[in-house]
Design goal:
This is BTB domain-containing protein. The protein has 204 residues and is an alpha+beta fold. A hairpin with a 5-residue loop joins strand 3 and strand 4. Helix 1 packs antiparallel against helix 4, helix 2 packs across helix 3 and helix 4 packs across helix 5. The chain is elongated.
Length: 204
């Protein structure tokens, strides 16, 4: 499929999502609702596939719906839009800390619903955001983000570290003199080990 054809398909899928045209399922999250299509959820996510078998309810008008009140509505909207369009558009105007938190939330939700392509996109964008934040001297926001990554399951955290650590190389000389960064490292032994074994890491 050419890029032009792919873009056309994505545009049509985005229209389906944004207009709710031909929708056959409502998803409620908090005070938000999303008009979606069962078939598309079925082929995009094994978790939604299971929900479609066992988790559908009907309202008084006979419309099918699912409640996902444990999920943040804004993050859920980003997930659903990606499932339709294969595109992730970050909200505009976020501060560094908020932008990284949003990407963490997107990654967690994509992992929860087993949407691996969005996991990959969120991981790449988060790696980029950390480096940009370090360029802007937003060290505390980066430390907070790294701590949250460290709380992920070990295999997931290692994948993040493998993506992030090489890109941190130009920043490490300064970071190694940051008291908060040095204090964080014992909390994240896998990250610390990867940094210590890198040939370009300054002595701690």
């Amino acid at each position: 499929m050419t890029n032009t054809a792919f873009d056309q398909v994505c545009s049509r899928m985005e229209e389906l999502y944004t207009t709710g045209l031909y929708f056959d399922l409502l998803i409620y999250s908090g005070n938000s609702s999303f008009k979606v299509h069962k078939y598309w959820l079925h082929i995009q996510s094994p978790v939604f596939r299971s929900m479609l078998k066992d988790g559908i309810q009907q309202d008084c008008d006979g419309k099918d719906f699912i409640r996902l009140d444990d999920d943040d509505p804004a993050t859920l909207g980003l997930l659903l839009k990606f499932m339709y369009t294969s595109r992730y558009n970050e909200p505009l105007g976020l501060e560094a800390r908020d932008g990284m938190q949003m990407l963490l939330n997107v990654y967690k939700l994509a992992d929860k619903y087993k949407v691996p392509n969005l996991c990959s996109v969120a991981m790449k964008r988060l790696s980029d955001a950390i480096i940009v934040a370090l360029d802007q001297n937003e060290v505390n926001a980066c430390i907070e983000t790294l701590r949250q990554i460290g709380a992920f399951p070990a295999e997931t955290a290692c994948t993040f570290w493998d993506a992030i650590v090489p890109r941190m190389a130009p920043k490490l000389s300064c970071l190694s003199h940051n008291d908060e960064f040095r204090a964080m490292l014992p909390e994240l032994p896998v990250l610390r080990q990867k940094l210590l074994t890198a040939p370009w890491f300054p002595d701690l």
